[in-house]
Amino acid sequence: MASLSQEGKFAVIIKNSILSEDGNPARYRLQEKKDNTDKSKPYRKMTFGERHKNKPHKTILMVGETGTGKTTLINVMINYMLGVQRNDKVWFEITDDQNEQTSAHSQTSIITVYGFYLQESPIDLTVIDTPGYGDTRGVDLDKQIAMSLLCLSESAEGISEIHAVCLVIKAAQNRLSDRQRYIFDSVQSLFGKDTAENIVLLFTHSDGAPPKNALTAVKEAKVKCAENDKKQQVFFLFNNCQSEAADEEYDEDEEDREQRLNQSWKNSFKGTMQLFKFLDKIDPKSLKMTRDVLLKREQLEANISNLKARVQITELKQNELKQTQEVLEKSKKAVKENKNFEYEVEVVYKKRVDIDTSVAYKATCCTVCKENCHYPGCWWVINLSWCEVMKDDYCTVCTKKCHYSKHVKEAKIYEAETKTEKRTYEELKKKYDDKIGAGVSVVKKLEEELQELENEKIKLVNEAFHCVETLQMIALNTVSLCTLQHADFLIKKLKEINAPEKAKTLEDIKKKAADEKKESTGKDKSNKKVK
């Protein structure tokens, strides 16, 4: 026999849904109007219904470790928006709740954008879900998710602002795992400092009581989030049993079971109501600063990667010139008499080689400068003008800052190699006469070229440091992962170019990160001893 919901207020939406499981409640899978699976875009967009311009619209980003219950939480929000009550005996969902129980490797590596524009709902909601964030595939996948957000914010149907970043955590946790800390640190590093008041905690599998241990764990992990007037973290509680059938047979008293399910329903809908009230009051934050953070981070990594290769080439060129100087020193008489002679020297050259697929699949390279401009990290763009290292159609990385049309994206990169080459004194003189002009000794010209190479090295190191400095100023989480990855290399090079103050700045950042990790490890050990 059909329920009142099936005959009445939900008849239209049920008609356009698929019954996934009959029972009490009957579970229906919502059908998306369109599923954007354009492979040129590193995100998937699923839309339910038509967007209403006159309706209030909210956008949230959901982040959490695999298994925390993000999908179930999204389903709770949908049912709240539709006004579903327990006695309606229906439950609407976008996917099987068991999806999050699957292996992390089976999940998509791109973010999914759900647009809920249902006619029966008083508001429109966009949910940006980040499946797989922090899973066993590690840093590379998390970086792809970050760049997916950047692409989404810049796309034609892009999202320019966000109302809340929702960190999803199980209520029973008494400490954050290393993976969770990494996830939340990564997310916080994506947003500008003004976004902290829009970051909230969503506790799943809750019994309705304040999760004191979990809140303490979040505070000890120094996760920045919104606070109320009493300087307490803003959080919302959810239970994950709403779709559980009321007539299933368990070794449980029927009255107790009914009471438990009613309380579960009440707790989750109360949490959703409070979350939506928060969304009504909070001012959305522009993603412009997030885009700046992401672009700076990409440019920083690309610059440092490019810098390493260029410094290597610079040092090899310096070695070549020093060998030439030694030859001239040994052949003073021939030089003085302006006689031609032959000598051997180790010459540096650039060679195109296949990419190591364990590091990256493709790279953006300049065919003019013969340099790797975006490697590793360039993985999805088709039109090279969209590449993160391009600005106003010109590269921000390669030596000559060439137009994007001079670049290629292939599974090959440039590497520096050396070979022994025979040269003559006449060739050397002609090279420098053509390059610098006559009237200056070859020895002097060699010294000038060595100084030019050193100046270029100084310029590149300083450029990389300024990228770090800018990122530290605008990022919410000041000790960003990419900064730490390149800290040792930059510190060494800054000392080589006699920039001790800048080197100390990076050393202090590195020390701060190490102290925080040590403090966290000490607390973890303390917790284990208590157990």
TrEMBL record:
Family label: Belongs to the TRAFAC class TrmE-Era-EngA-EngB-Septin-like GTPase superfamily. AIG1/Toc34/Toc159-like paraseptin GTPase family. IAN subfamily.
Stated name of the protein: Immune-associated nucleotide-binding protein 10
UniProt keyword annotations, A-Z: Coiled coil, Nucleotide-binding
Coiled coil: 290-338, 411-463
Keyword Coiled coil included in the entry's annotation: yes
Pfam families in the cross-refs: AIG1
Sequence ranges assigned to domain AIG1-type G in this UniProt record: 58-219
GO molecular function terms attached to this record: GTP binding
Highest taxon above the source species: Eukaryota
Sequence segments annotated as region (Disordered): 508-531
InterPro entries assigned: G_AIG1 (IPR006703), P-loop_NTPase (IPR027417), Sigma_54_int_dom_ATP-bd_1 (IPR025662)
